[in-house]
Amino acid sequence: MGGHEHRARIGRTVSAGLRLHDYGRIYMDTSEFMSIDSGDIIAVGGKHYLVYRDAVEQGLAYKDVKYWVKKCMELESGETKLLKLVFMKVSIWNTAV
Asked: Of 8, 82, 85, 93, which cross-links 30 as Cys (Cβ 3.0–4.6 Å)?
C-alpha cells in the first residue's frame, strides 16, 4: 500500500474534525520512535495504525509522556489502540585496562 492509498484510507476512516499534520510519514521500522508524530502511519504485522499522539501517564502531581507508547487508530478496523514500541537500552563500557 503506497502513501496515496494510506491517505485515502485515512480520509475514509477519520472524522472530519480531527486535526492532523498535512504530511504524515509511513514507518515500518519504529526504532526511531521519537521521530514518529501525530498524523504518521505505523505499518506492522499487516495492519496500519494512524498515530494520534504520544501516550501520557498522569498522576496527582505529575504528567509523564511515554514517547515509546503511541495512541493510534487501526485503519483496518477504526478501533483505538495503544502501541508500545520496543526499544533496546544500549550500554557502552570502556574495556581498556
From this structure: 85
